[in-house]
Amino acid sequence: MSGSGMAFPAVFKMGSEVKAFQRKERLKNLLVILALCGVFIEGCLIYHLWMRGPEQVNNINQQAEKMTQEKSEMQVMQAQLNRKKPAAHVTGCKSSTNEDGKLCWEPLDGDAFTHDISYKNGSLVIKHKGHYFIYSKIFYGETVCTEKVLFNHAIMRLTQMFDGSLELMKSKRYHCKNPNEDGLANSFLGGVYHLLEGDQIFVKVEQNQLILLQSSSENYFGAFLI
Fold first, then answer.
1. Cα–Cα nearest to 135, from 109, 162, 105
2. CA-to-CA distance for 219 and 147, rounded, in angstroms?
3. CA gap 65, 199 in Å, rounded
4. Is 165 exposed, middle or buried, given 0-12, 13-18 or 19+ CB atoms closer than 10 A?
5. Rounded Cα gap, residues 152 and 166, in angstroms
């Protein structure tokens, strides 16, 4: 072989193979680095989640306890709603045949009702002892008169502990009409009293001819256990 005209194909071939090998190595190294980065990131995420684990568990436990407490409160409220207390509301009114002014009422129709309290001849009969809110409203008209006369509205109690009736509440007002007014008036009584089983409460009105009977919302009487 002459020194001036000789070609070196083997050398060029080997050089191209070396370059290809180097590219492959660089690509392999890059893939390894990417894989290591992925492992590192995944490890960081796992560590982060593991560190937050107890906090999340505590939060879940707190939420579960709160839900349980709310459920218990709802059950208590529902039980209270389902357990109806003694109550009665009688409406309208009319004078009884007696001359003592005791009023009789409508215990069933319209808004009237009785639950665990009996109605008997104008009286509400208590079946369970306890503190009761008792109330009564009377709507009446005033008249022109030459002398002042009182309109008396009272709630009375009959009990085995005492003879006769006891006055629990009373309202007094002169019923003479004022020329500057329309001549209409309301009397309302309300209060809390401790009643015993078998006690009777009723409404007594003097000058009951003045009572105006217009609707069940104008005249009523009731009680409920508190």
1. 105
2. 27
3. 47
4. middle
5. 15
Do 173 and 150 form a contact (C-beta atoms < 8 A)?
A: yes
Q: What is the pLDDT of residue 86?
A: 95
Q: Which two tokens stand for residue 98?
A: 């007696």
Q: Which residues are CB-contacts of 131 (< 8 A; sequence separation ≥ 6)?
A: 192, 193, 194, 195, 225, 226
The count of C-alpha atoms lying within 13 angstroms of the C-alpha of 17, restricted to the half-sphere facing its C-beta, is 6
With a CB cutoff of 8 Å and minimum separation 6, the contacts of 129 are: 194, 195, 196, 197
Beta bridge partners of 126: 117
Length reported for the chain: 226
Angstrom distance (rounded) from CA 214 to CA 211: 10
CA dist 220 → 133, 163, 171, 211 (Å): 14, 27, 15, 12
Q: What is the pTM of this model?
A: 0.60
Query: Are 122 and 201 in contact, with CB atoms under 8 Å apart?
Result: no
Q: How far apart are the first and last CA of the chain?
A: 126
Q: What residue ranges of the chain have pLDDT lower than 70?
A: 1-22, 24, 47-61, 64, 70-71, 74-83, 94-99, 142-147, 175, 177-182, 214
Q: Give the other-Cβ count within 10 Å of 27's Cβ.
A: 10
Let me know if 220 is exposed, middle or buried by CB neighbors in 10 A (0-12, 13-18, 19+): buried
Token digits of residue 3: 């020194």
- For the domain made up of 87-225, give the CATH fold: Jelly Rolls (2.60.120)
